[in-house]
Design brief:
globular; alpha/beta; two-stranded antiparallel sheet; binds zinc ion
Length: about 290
């Protein structure tokens, strides 16, 4: 099947959070989740498998931080190739029948602040994108970005693989929580990614599904591209020193039809969501089909 065929058949259910699912399996706070591809591959595979069982038709990879710049902070820059290659292999094997979109997160450094040069960023994202592509994912997902300039560099790097590339931003800042941390609006993100040759654009993490419906509608008005939507289970709250998400799977699912009407092409969840959220979302999509 082609990219056009995947995106033309109505909303495609993706997966939920990975970080919080790995924590349930013992990942420590401050531990690098991506390193589990090498040291606990069976737990990573179990996350992918549980989402596939719950009805996800697109499964991501545990490679969000596996670019050489982020890995260097953990002394693991030399494991970039292996960590990404294995990450794709795990998801492909554990989630048979699903499409695998390989995840690329931001570098953790801001171009605008002069923390990193464009050349360094491009080299880092090219290394990750090529490593991911070597295991044959169905597409690449550049996700949870805040800075437009960094997203454009990551997109350029991802496109060198010849794979379809979706670019997703995290909106969680400003009075209306409708800007990224660096002040980018949904319209700016959608237009810039359309002009830069992305195959899809969207929003993940940041706000919950209720707020994301409005952001999705604004993106839909600004681009013809397929829209990728993965909200959190509400805004995170700290309770007794632990991060909690208050939105339940049923509450989440009750907004899935609205997200669909707002023009979402791909629907899933980010932080705080789990396989139960995906099962509930699948039921909500089924009943509004
Ligand atoms: Zn998230």
């Amino acid at each position: 099947m082609s990219w056009q065929e995947w995106v033309s058949g109505g909303p495609v259910l993706t997966d939920g959070a990975w970080g919080t699912e790995l924590q349930k399996r013992g990942l420590g706070l401050g531990e690098l989740p991506d390193a589990w591809n090498l040291i606990h591959p069976e737990d990573v595979a179990d996350v992918a498998h549980c989402y596939r069982q719950a009805g996800s038709r697109v499964i991501l990879t545990n490679t969000f931080r596996a670019n050489p710049i982020s890995l260097a902070a953990h002394g693991l820059a030399d494991r970039c190739m292996e960590m990404n290659r294995v990450g794709v292999e795990i998801s492909k094997k554990a989630a048979e029948g699903a499409l695998v979109f390989a995840s690329m997160g931001p570098s953790g450094k801001l171009l605008g602040a002069g923390d990193v040069t464009e050349e360094e960023l491009l080299a880092a994202f090219c290394a990750q994108a090529q490593a991911l592509a070597s295991s044959g994912p169905d597409a690449l997902l550049v996700e949870t970005f805040s800075e437009l300039a960094e997203a454009i560099v990551a997109l350029r790097a991802a496109k060198t693989t010849g794979l379809a590339v979706v670019v997703s931003f995290a909106f969680d800042t400003g009075r209306n929580k409708d800007r990224t941390m660096t002040g980018v609006t949904p319209e700016q993100a959608a237009k810039a990614m359309t002009e830069s040759g992305a195959d899809g654009v969207g929003a993940n993490c940041g706000v919950g599904i209720e707020q994301l419906v409005g952001l999705c509608r604004r993106m839909r008005a600004a681009t013809h591209l397929p829209l990728w939507m993965k909200p959190n289970a509400g805004l995170p709250e700290v309770v007794d020193g632990a991060v909690r998400y208050r939105v339940t799977a049923a509450q989440f699912a009750s907004f899935v039809p609205s997200l669909r009407e707002a023009g979402a092409t791909f629907i899933g969840g980010c932080c705080g969501t789990d396989p139960q959220f995906i099962r509930s979302a699948a039921a909500a999509l089924g009943s509004c089909a």
